């Protein structure tokens, strides 16, 4: 299950890195496949919007399907666990954006 999810994540990382290489961007921070690449927000909102990314959502869907099939969980339990992990990741990303705003790089 984790191999399939890691494969999806790797495809997203490869695609975003390839796009950054092709547009010759030196300070690649925002994934090009995220919602924040359209909005361009900074701080906590920017961190939150970076989690709404095509491959992260795809990974969440695969996690729910995998928990149903591999772990034998019910559909409701599998989706609840997958969504809870997505929300935890979104909260941590928003907190990271807030902390980045408080302590800017020198």
Write up what this structure looks like.
The chain has 106 residues and is mostly helical. It is flat and about 45 Å long. The model has no long low-confidence stretch (mean pLDDT 89). The chain contains five helices and no strands. It has helices at 2-22, 36-39, 43-51, 54-69, 75-102.
Tally of contiguous helical segments:
5
Which regions are unreliable across 5 or more consecutive residues at pLDDT < 50? none
The major pleated sheet works out as: none
Number of strands: 0
Shape: flat
Q: Which range best describes the helical content: under 10%, 10-25%, 25-40%, 40-55%, 55-70% or over 70%?
A: over 70%
- Beta-strand share of residues: under 5%
Which structural category do the helix and sheet elements fall into? mainly alpha
Distance between the termini: 41 Å
| H/E element sequence | HHHHH
Q: Radius of gyration in whole Å, from Cα?
A: 16 Å
User: What value does the average pLDDT take?
Assistant: 89
Blueprint of the fold:
Blueprint: H1 2-22, H2 36-39, H3 43-51, H4 54-69, H5 75-102
Helix pairs in contact: 1-4, 3-5, 4-5
Briefly say what this structure is.
By secondary structure, this protein is mainly alpha-helical. 74% of the residues lie in helices and 0% in strands.
List keywords for this structure.
single chain, 74% helix, 5 helices, flat, mainly alpha, 106 residues
